[in-house]
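Why predict the complex rather than its parts? Because the way molecules touch one another can change local conformation, and only a joint prediction can capture that. The input here totals 367 residues.
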Amino acid sequence: MIKFLDLQRINQRHEAEFKEALAGVLDSGWYIRGRQLSAFESEFAKYCGVPHAIGTGNGLDALILILKAWMQAGKIEAGDEVLVPANTYIASILSISACGLVPVPVEPDPQTCNIDPGRLQAAMGRRTRVLMAVHLYGQLADMKRLSAFAKEKGLLLLEDAAQAHGARDAKGRRAGSFGDAAAFSFYPGKNLGALGDGGAVVTPDAELARLVRALGNYGSEKKYVHGMKGINSRLDELQAAFLRIKLRSLDADNERRREIARQYLEGIHHPELQLPHWDGSSAHVFHLFVIRHPARDKLAAHLRKKGVETAIHYPLPPHRQGAYREWNERKFPLTEAIHREVLSLPIHPLLQEEEIRFIIQSINQFP
Ligand SMILES: Cc1ncc(COP(=O)(O)O)c(C=O)c1O
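Output of the joint prediction:
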């Protein structure tokens, strides 16, 4: 079976370095908020081209901490509205609800599956304060138009970059460097994945960085002094040490993902199948290679029979989930069509040439 994601292969490459890192942390006797975290934070901030990075427990917490910090700073308050793509992983939307803010879902551009900047104006309300851009599947959202809109309307711009580590625009600006703040996830399957949960906030705003750091540490900047109602959400020393090692190969891994995408785009020929839109640039890091087919389930079954594992991102849109019962009757036809038809092919950087050829051949043989 060709696995959809072979984490063992991906991480085995670093086994010797991981063991050394583990020994280093063991020797240090220091597991939380130590030297590894500080080093990772400065290396990741530099990589993203942003002055500040703060490690968090996971990507969802990174989003929540940004919103909480803006509330703490008095920039937004409970009941304010946040524009967010209707077509995203539910965590983007959960972070808004978790802070007592109101998510306002906006339909995607059907070509990129990212939020459609042309639909933002109609979604604006009296209390709209934040625009959340999500770089879905690893492709930068249209940051030029989204930044211009946020600026014109005085909105805070938040990037959910959980799927887009390293994506960069034509000027070399990386995901995470466009907004007032950005959230990353280091969930193991991400392009930069830890050996457990992890996340980070990056921001150009020193005051926001201070608040996020304190809020993720029980609202404390000095031991046992709690100036804010915080939570506990930190990136531990071991994960930080592992991530430092993997950060060094992120660009090469992303390039390999693009190379596999190139081969898929050139090799797959099927009349009813829609391939992902890509301009060929580094603005896409192909966290996922998502194709669309009206008979998606049959295609997935055909590939499974051939020995190719696929995945669906995602089977049910957020507005159809039990968590958002209040939206269940609302219609988001573009989002719904995407969820009905999408299928993700294996695209991890350790996929072998013969596996890629076999996957292409198997799809082209689909009746
Ligand atoms: C777009 C998006 N946002 C947020 C998250 C949440 O990240 P985490 O799983 O680290 O909490 C994820 C990943 O799971 C994601 O894909």
